[in-house]
Amino acid sequence: MTKEALSKEYSLFTFGRNSGLGQLLSPSMHDEVYYHISKLNEVPITKVQLNQLLVISQAGGVSDGFFQYYWKEAADSHPYDVKKVQFFDETWITGKDQTIVSHDHLRWGLYRIFIDGLLYFGNVIAGFKSLRSLPRTGIADFFSSKRFDTAAFAARGPCLPLKTIPKDDRYLISEMACKTFGEVPEDAEQARQMLHDALKRYRETKGGPVQFKQLLEELVGRGENNDQLMLSFDDVLAEDVKDADHLTKTFNGELAKFLTARESAVKNTALYLSMVNDLDVYVATSMRNRQNFRDMATACEKIFGDPKLTHLHLRYFDPTMSAAKGHEDKGLIECLMVQCAKVLVYCEGEKESYGKDAEAAMALSLGKPVIFYCDRGKKTMFYRDVHPLARLINFRSGVAVGAIVSDDVMQVAELLKRTFENTMEYRIEHHEKRVGYLKLVEKLTESVVRLQTDDDLLASTFWNNYHNRQHEGFISLVAGKEAEWLHE
Fold this sequence. Notes:
The protein contains 20 helices and 14 strands. By secondary structure, it is α/β, with parallel strands linked by helices. The chain has a 5-stranded parallel sheet, with helices on both faces. The protein has a 3-stranded antiparallel sheet with strand order 10-11-12, covered by helices on one side. Strand 10 and strand 11 (438-442) form a beta hairpin. The two termini are 32 Å apart.
């Protein structure tokens, strides 16, 4: 095999222009590397020989533990199933010798190194340098700390049940309904009187039969909020208002439903707060009409009622089941939940919403897994490839993180299962037009969850300055041992 042909076989693992791991198997590879790798299927390479090839390629040698972890075992304690990484063969992890026996064997270890570097360190070189000198136990402990404790999820059992709110009444806990009826029964008197005034005006100016909707439109003409009022009385819009007594009875009936739903929703918020430190999934959405509430409630039922998830007893925030005593409290509560939740599910709405966008941005910036569910199926490509919130920076580490985007509600359940069972599957790709630009792709949805740019100036400037000042000389504790946090 010629050097050109060999470098083509390993083109997936080539990036950057500086000597080292990214150029190890590039067309500019060292002659010794070419000689030994080209014969790999016939003549195995020992760990000592691999280190020599790494050193002469200016990549740096690896510890016995690093070699063992990446080429001689498939650790069950890793944050994803390494046996599902491309090229894997069970026979490689059965022997006790320290050798790489084939091209696929070498590729399997490199593939894992690349995935781990992109997932947890921001780029491949940073991950390699941070881990290559550690003992096997240090590496294993580091990655174990990145896993969810699936057994503990299943063992903890269910939480206290929420107060029931009929799905068809959940629209009554909306901010709009609260603004119509008020926070306490006495506050509703103003809305009741406004409707009676509207009825009187209508009788005096127009006469004849009048529907509840027409009375609301009469108020809209006097400066009231149309959407707010129409949503608040959605059940009775088509009813004829016979007289003032009938109007009072109708209003009181809707007020009673509102108060019942709201009381349950406020109690549910207390229950959510009681388990906030144990919250698994926060659902972010915006709901502007009754059907939005129905759809969101149905989506939560399908996702979290999926048999694949029930054994995990997931604690999740259902936005159709919770209300606060005021919108300021609501903001504080939701920020706390985003901070505490392990995963955020962002649900597309009819219109963009600052609130849910801010929540998704917070979660991504905290480095949490974020799933964009495009329940209307119209913006999947937009959210996956265009939306500015789909990829942000983890403020703690500087790692570029991307959202996982799906328009299939059952796929969302599967993604949650894979997340909490540590069975996510990834694929490495180069950018379509930029050979050295690496992308880490989540296999089920084809979503890009990590990036490594090929712009050397951007990369060096970013990592030289990201942790500057307050994080200058930043030290990362890797597996309980102090190690320099190296980025390129």
